[in-house]
Amino acid sequence: MSDATDILQEIEAVGEKLRLAQGEIAKRVIGQPEVVDLTLNALLSGGHALLVGAPGLAKTRLVETLGVVMGLDAKRIQFTPDLMPADILGAEVLEQAASGERSFRFIEGPIFCQLLMADEINRASPRTQSALLQAMQEKFVTIAGRRMDLAPPFHVLATQNPIEQEGTYPLPEAQLDRFLLQVDIAYPTVAAERDILIATTTGDEAEAAPVFTGPELIAAQRLVRRMPVGESVLEAILNLVRAARPGEPEALDFIERTVNWGPGPRAAQALMLATRARALMDGRLAPDIDDVIALARPALTHRMALTFAARAEGDSVERVIGALAARTLGEGAEAAA
What positions does the domain ChlI/MoxR AAA lid occupy (predicted)? Predict the structure, then answer.
Protein backbone atom coordinates (compact mmCIF):
# COMPACT_ATOMS: atom_id res chain seq x y z
CA MET A 1 0.00 0.00 0.00
CA SER A 2 2.83 2.38 0.84
CA ASP A 3 4.51 1.68 -2.53
CA ALA A 4 1.31 2.61 -4.38
CA THR A 5 1.00 5.77 -2.27
CA ASP A 6 4.61 6.72 -3.00
CA ILE A 7 4.15 6.18 -6.73
CA LEU A 8 0.93 8.20 -6.71
CA GLN A 9 2.67 11.09 -4.96
CA GLU A 10 5.51 10.98 -7.46
CA ILE A 11 3.02 10.89 -10.35
CA GLU A 12 1.25 13.96 -8.98
CA ALA A 13 4.54 15.84 -8.56
CA VAL A 14 5.86 14.95 -12.02
CA GLY A 15 2.43 15.59 -13.56
CA GLU A 16 2.44 19.12 -12.18
CA LYS A 17 5.88 19.80 -13.68
CA LEU A 18 4.73 18.35 -17.00
CA ARG A 19 1.77 20.73 -17.06
CA LEU A 20 4.18 23.61 -16.48
CA ALA A 21 6.41 22.30 -19.26
CA GLN A 22 3.46 22.07 -21.66
CA GLY A 23 2.56 25.66 -20.83
CA GLU A 24 6.09 26.88 -21.52
CA ILE A 25 6.29 24.99 -24.81
CA ALA A 26 2.89 26.39 -25.87
CA LYS A 27 4.34 29.92 -25.65
CA ARG A 28 6.50 29.18 -28.69
CA VAL A 29 4.76 26.24 -30.40
CA ILE A 30 1.20 27.41 -30.97
CA GLY A 31 -1.76 25.27 -31.97
CA GLN A 32 -0.02 21.88 -31.91
CA PRO A 33 -0.92 20.38 -28.49
CA GLU A 34 -1.06 16.78 -29.77
CA VAL A 35 2.35 17.10 -31.42
CA VAL A 36 3.82 18.52 -28.21
CA ASP A 37 2.25 15.76 -26.11
CA LEU A 38 3.50 12.96 -28.37
CA THR A 39 7.02 14.38 -28.45
CA LEU A 40 7.05 14.77 -24.67
CA ASN A 41 5.72 11.22 -24.46
CA ALA A 42 8.71 9.94 -26.43
CA LEU A 43 11.12 11.74 -24.09
CA LEU A 44 9.36 10.44 -20.96
CA SER A 45 9.48 6.93 -22.41
CA GLY A 46 13.23 7.28 -22.93
CA GLY A 47 12.96 6.98 -26.71
CA HIS A 48 13.37 8.86 -29.96
CA ALA A 49 10.75 10.43 -32.22
CA LEU A 50 10.43 10.98 -35.96
CA LEU A 51 8.68 14.28 -36.74
CA VAL A 52 7.05 14.17 -40.19
CA GLY A 53 5.64 17.38 -41.61
CA ALA A 54 5.87 19.95 -44.38
CA PRO A 55 8.32 22.86 -44.07
CA GLY A 56 7.33 25.73 -41.80
CA LEU A 57 5.33 23.75 -39.23
CA ALA A 58 7.60 24.59 -36.27
CA LYS A 59 9.52 21.30 -36.11
CA THR A 60 12.84 23.04 -35.49
CA ARG A 61 11.24 25.47 -33.05
CA LEU A 62 9.69 22.57 -31.14
CA VAL A 63 13.03 20.81 -30.66
CA GLU A 64 14.80 24.03 -29.67
CA THR A 65 12.06 24.82 -27.15
CA LEU A 66 12.14 21.29 -25.72
CA GLY A 67 15.86 21.65 -25.12
CA VAL A 68 15.25 24.78 -23.04
CA VAL A 69 12.17 23.56 -21.16
CA MET A 70 13.54 20.10 -20.36
CA GLY A 71 16.94 21.46 -19.37
CA LEU A 72 18.85 19.45 -21.98
CA ASP A 73 22.01 20.19 -23.93
CA ALA A 74 20.52 20.40 -27.43
CA LYS A 75 22.32 20.39 -30.77
CA ARG A 76 21.17 20.38 -34.39
CA ILE A 77 22.53 18.69 -37.51
CA GLN A 78 21.31 19.66 -40.96
CA PHE A 79 21.43 16.44 -42.94
CA THR A 80 22.65 16.85 -46.54
CA PRO A 81 23.88 14.37 -49.18
CA ASP A 82 27.52 15.27 -48.53
CA LEU A 83 27.31 14.83 -44.72
CA MET A 84 29.81 12.22 -43.51
CA PRO A 85 29.67 9.99 -40.39
CA ALA A 86 32.60 11.89 -38.87
CA ASP A 87 30.53 15.08 -39.12
CA ILE A 88 28.13 13.48 -36.64
CA LEU A 89 30.39 11.39 -34.41
CA GLY A 90 33.57 13.45 -34.40
CA ALA A 91 37.12 12.57 -35.41
CA GLU A 92 40.66 12.27 -34.13
CA VAL A 93 43.14 14.91 -35.31
CA LEU A 94 46.91 14.81 -35.11
CA GLU A 95 48.36 17.69 -33.11
CA GLN A 96 51.97 18.73 -32.63
CA ALA A 97 53.08 20.37 -29.39
CA ALA A 98 55.68 23.12 -29.16
CA SER A 99 58.18 20.45 -28.10
CA GLY A 100 57.62 18.63 -31.37
CA GLU A 101 55.72 15.77 -29.74
CA ARG A 102 52.77 14.55 -31.73
CA SER A 103 49.55 13.09 -30.37
CA PHE A 104 45.98 12.41 -31.41
CA ARG A 105 43.16 14.46 -29.92
CA PHE A 106 39.51 13.52 -30.30
CA ILE A 107 37.15 16.32 -31.27
CA GLU A 108 33.60 15.45 -30.31
CA GLY A 109 30.87 15.66 -32.93
CA PRO A 110 27.40 17.09 -32.30
CA ILE A 111 26.08 13.66 -31.29
CA PHE A 112 27.67 14.22 -27.88
CA CYS A 113 24.66 16.00 -26.44
CA GLN A 114 21.41 15.14 -24.70
CA LEU A 115 18.88 16.20 -27.34
CA LEU A 116 19.95 15.87 -30.96
CA MET A 117 17.86 17.28 -33.78
CA ALA A 118 18.52 15.39 -37.02
CA ASP A 119 16.97 17.82 -39.49
CA GLU A 120 15.74 16.25 -42.74
CA ILE A 121 17.39 12.96 -41.86
CA ASN A 122 16.38 11.33 -45.14
CA ARG A 123 18.61 13.69 -47.15
CA ALA A 124 21.83 12.06 -45.92
CA SER A 125 23.36 8.95 -47.47
CA PRO A 126 22.65 5.52 -45.94
CA ARG A 127 26.23 5.40 -44.67
CA THR A 128 25.69 8.57 -42.66
CA GLN A 129 22.22 7.53 -41.51
CA SER A 130 23.68 4.29 -40.14
CA ALA A 131 26.08 6.30 -37.97
CA LEU A 132 23.07 7.11 -35.79
CA LEU A 133 21.95 3.48 -35.37
CA GLN A 134 24.36 2.43 -32.63
CA ALA A 135 23.95 5.70 -30.75
CA MET A 136 20.15 5.57 -30.84
CA GLN A 137 19.92 1.99 -29.63
CA GLU A 138 23.02 1.46 -27.49
CA LYS A 139 23.62 5.03 -26.25
CA PHE A 140 27.31 4.86 -27.14
CA VAL A 141 29.47 5.17 -30.25
CA THR A 142 32.65 3.40 -31.31
CA ILE A 143 35.38 5.58 -32.77
CA ALA A 144 38.81 4.25 -33.73
CA GLY A 145 37.94 1.02 -31.92
CA ARG A 146 37.21 2.84 -28.69
CA ARG A 147 33.80 2.90 -26.99
CA MET A 148 32.56 6.35 -26.02
CA ASP A 149 29.39 6.62 -23.93
CA LEU A 150 26.83 9.34 -24.51
CA ALA A 151 25.75 11.33 -21.47
CA PRO A 152 22.22 10.44 -20.32
CA PRO A 153 19.56 11.30 -21.13
CA PHE A 154 20.15 10.98 -24.88
CA HIS A 155 17.34 11.50 -27.38
CA VAL A 156 17.16 11.94 -31.14
CA LEU A 157 14.31 13.96 -32.64
CA ALA A 158 14.57 13.57 -36.40
CA THR A 159 12.55 15.52 -38.94
CA GLN A 160 11.41 14.45 -42.37
CA ASN A 161 9.62 16.29 -45.17
CA PRO A 162 6.87 14.04 -46.60
CA ILE A 163 6.32 16.19 -49.71
CA GLU A 164 9.59 16.51 -51.62
CA GLN A 165 11.37 13.16 -52.05
CA GLU A 166 13.76 14.05 -54.89
CA GLY A 167 17.36 13.47 -53.85
CA THR A 168 16.43 11.69 -50.62
CA TYR A 169 17.36 8.29 -49.20
CA PRO A 170 14.42 6.54 -47.52
CA LEU A 171 15.24 5.41 -44.01
CA PRO A 172 15.81 1.65 -43.74
CA GLU A 173 13.40 -0.41 -41.67
CA ALA A 174 16.07 -1.08 -39.04
CA GLN A 175 16.46 2.63 -38.38
CA LEU A 176 12.75 3.43 -38.51
CA ASP A 177 12.15 0.77 -35.87
CA ARG A 178 14.43 2.62 -33.48
CA PHE A 179 12.07 5.57 -33.33
CA LEU A 180 9.63 5.03 -30.48
CA LEU A 181 6.91 7.13 -32.14
CA GLN A 182 6.24 8.79 -35.46
CA VAL A 183 4.68 12.21 -34.94
CA ASP A 184 2.76 13.49 -37.97
CA ILE A 185 2.46 17.27 -38.02
CA ALA A 186 -0.49 18.70 -39.94
CA TYR A 187 -1.22 22.27 -40.98
CA PRO A 188 -2.71 24.41 -38.19
CA THR A 189 -6.37 25.32 -37.97
CA VAL A 190 -7.53 28.79 -38.97
CA ALA A 191 -7.74 29.91 -35.32
CA ALA A 192 -4.29 28.50 -34.53
CA GLU A 193 -2.72 30.11 -37.59
CA ARG A 194 -4.27 33.45 -36.62
CA ASP A 195 -2.65 33.13 -33.17
CA ILE A 196 0.67 32.22 -34.81
CA LEU A 197 0.60 35.32 -37.00
CA ILE A 198 -0.10 37.61 -34.05
CA ALA A 199 2.44 35.97 -31.74
CA THR A 200 5.32 35.87 -34.23
CA THR A 201 4.95 39.20 -36.04
CA THR A 202 3.98 41.57 -33.25
CA GLY A 203 6.54 42.77 -30.72
CA ASP A 204 9.08 40.40 -29.18
CA GLU A 205 8.47 36.68 -29.36
CA ALA A 206 7.78 34.85 -26.12
CA GLU A 207 10.64 32.95 -24.50
CA ALA A 208 10.28 29.58 -22.78
CA ALA A 209 11.70 28.99 -19.31
CA PRO A 210 13.38 25.81 -18.04
CA VAL A 211 11.10 23.49 -16.04
CA PHE A 212 13.01 20.20 -15.89
CA THR A 213 16.67 19.30 -15.56
CA GLY A 214 18.41 16.31 -17.10
CA PRO A 215 18.41 14.34 -13.80
CA GLU A 216 14.72 15.16 -13.24
CA LEU A 217 13.86 13.83 -16.71
CA ILE A 218 15.78 10.62 -15.94
CA ALA A 219 13.83 10.28 -12.68
CA ALA A 220 10.56 10.72 -14.59
CA GLN A 221 11.64 8.05 -17.07
CA ARG A 222 12.29 5.64 -14.20
CA LEU A 223 8.88 6.46 -12.75
CA VAL A 224 7.25 5.56 -16.09
CA ARG A 225 8.83 2.10 -15.93
CA ARG A 226 7.57 1.60 -12.37
CA MET A 227 3.95 2.35 -13.22
CA PRO A 228 1.70 -0.73 -13.16
CA VAL A 229 0.03 -2.02 -16.32
CA GLY A 230 -3.20 -3.99 -16.03
CA GLU A 231 -3.64 -7.38 -17.67
CA SER A 232 -6.33 -5.99 -19.98
CA VAL A 233 -3.96 -3.32 -21.34
CA LEU A 234 -1.16 -5.86 -21.74
CA GLU A 235 -3.47 -8.18 -23.68
CA ALA A 236 -4.72 -5.28 -25.83
CA ILE A 237 -1.14 -4.38 -26.82
CA LEU A 238 -0.26 -7.99 -27.64
CA ASN A 239 -3.47 -8.52 -29.62
CA LEU A 240 -2.97 -5.31 -31.61
CA VAL A 241 0.68 -5.93 -32.51
CA ARG A 242 0.38 -9.65 -33.26
CA ALA A 243 -2.77 -9.18 -35.33
CA ALA A 244 -0.81 -6.78 -37.58
CA ARG A 245 1.78 -9.39 -38.62
CA PRO A 246 1.02 -11.35 -41.78
CA GLY A 247 1.77 -15.05 -41.32
CA GLU A 248 1.05 -15.06 -37.58
CA PRO A 249 -1.85 -17.24 -36.33
CA GLU A 250 -3.39 -14.09 -34.79
CA ALA A 251 -3.18 -12.06 -38.03
CA LEU A 252 -6.51 -10.73 -39.26
CA ASP A 253 -7.75 -11.73 -42.71
CA PHE A 254 -7.37 -8.29 -44.30
CA ILE A 255 -3.84 -7.96 -42.86
CA GLU A 256 -2.73 -10.96 -44.92
CA ARG A 257 -3.92 -9.16 -48.06
CA THR A 258 -2.74 -5.62 -47.33
CA VAL A 259 0.42 -5.76 -45.17
CA ASN A 260 3.81 -6.79 -46.54
CA TRP A 261 5.58 -6.77 -43.18
CA GLY A 262 4.25 -5.90 -39.74
CA PRO A 263 5.51 -4.51 -36.44
CA GLY A 264 8.08 -6.42 -34.39
CA PRO A 265 8.49 -6.69 -30.61
CA ARG A 266 9.82 -3.12 -30.40
CA ALA A 267 6.33 -1.92 -31.35
CA ALA A 268 4.84 -3.69 -28.31
CA GLN A 269 7.63 -2.31 -26.12
CA ALA A 270 6.97 1.19 -27.46
CA LEU A 271 3.25 0.88 -26.68
CA MET A 272 3.94 -0.40 -23.15
CA LEU A 273 6.14 2.59 -22.37
CA ALA A 274 4.13 5.21 -24.26
CA THR A 275 0.80 4.23 -22.66
CA ARG A 276 2.39 4.59 -19.23
CA ALA A 277 3.86 7.98 -20.17
CA ARG A 278 0.46 9.15 -21.44
CA ALA A 279 -1.15 8.12 -18.15
CA LEU A 280 1.58 9.98 -16.25
CA MET A 281 0.95 13.12 -18.29
CA ASP A 282 -2.74 12.87 -17.36
CA GLY A 283 -1.93 12.28 -13.67
CA ARG A 284 -3.23 8.69 -13.67
CA LEU A 285 -1.67 5.79 -11.81
CA ALA A 286 -1.96 3.30 -14.69
CA PRO A 287 -2.80 3.30 -18.42
CA ASP A 288 -6.06 2.05 -19.90
CA ILE A 289 -7.34 0.85 -23.29
CA ASP A 290 -7.94 4.43 -24.45
CA ASP A 291 -4.20 5.03 -24.20
CA VAL A 292 -3.50 2.05 -26.47
CA ILE A 293 -6.07 3.35 -28.97
CA ALA A 294 -4.60 6.86 -28.95
CA LEU A 295 -1.03 5.62 -29.47
CA ALA A 296 -1.68 2.84 -31.98
CA ARG A 297 -1.04 5.03 -35.01
CA PRO A 298 2.13 6.85 -33.73
CA ALA A 299 3.64 3.54 -32.59
CA LEU A 300 2.79 1.43 -35.65
CA THR A 301 2.78 3.71 -38.72
CA HIS A 302 6.54 3.56 -39.33
CA ARG A 303 6.76 -0.13 -38.45
CA MET A 304 4.45 -1.45 -41.19
CA ALA A 305 4.56 -1.58 -44.99
CA LEU A 306 1.70 -2.27 -47.39
CA THR A 307 1.75 -4.71 -50.26
CA PHE A 308 1.95 -3.39 -53.81
CA ALA A 309 -1.65 -4.46 -54.42
CA ALA A 310 -2.88 -2.52 -51.38
CA ARG A 311 -1.03 0.62 -52.46
CA ALA A 312 -2.38 0.26 -56.00
CA GLU A 313 -5.91 0.16 -54.61
CA GLY A 314 -5.29 3.43 -52.77
CA ASP A 315 -5.01 1.96 -49.29
CA SER A 316 -2.84 3.59 -46.61
CA VAL A 317 -1.05 2.42 -43.50
CA GLU A 318 -3.14 4.81 -41.41
CA ARG A 319 -6.40 3.33 -42.72
CA VAL A 320 -5.16 -0.22 -42.09
CA ILE A 321 -4.16 0.68 -38.52
CA GLY A 322 -7.60 2.20 -37.93
CA ALA A 323 -9.33 -0.96 -39.11
CA LEU A 324 -6.90 -3.08 -37.11
CA ALA A 325 -7.58 -1.08 -33.95
CA ALA A 326 -11.34 -1.34 -34.47
CA ARG A 327 -11.16 -5.13 -34.80
CA THR A 328 -8.80 -5.73 -31.86
CA LEU A 329 -9.55 -2.89 -29.44
CA GLY A 330 -13.29 -2.42 -29.85
CA GLU A 331 -15.81 0.02 -31.25
CA GLY A 332 -14.68 3.62 -31.62
CA ALA A 333 -11.02 2.67 -31.95
CA GLU A 334 -10.93 3.14 -35.74
CA ALA A 335 -11.82 6.84 -35.61
CA ALA A 336 -9.45 7.50 -32.70
CA ALA A 337 -6.52 5.68 -34.29
Answer: 257-318
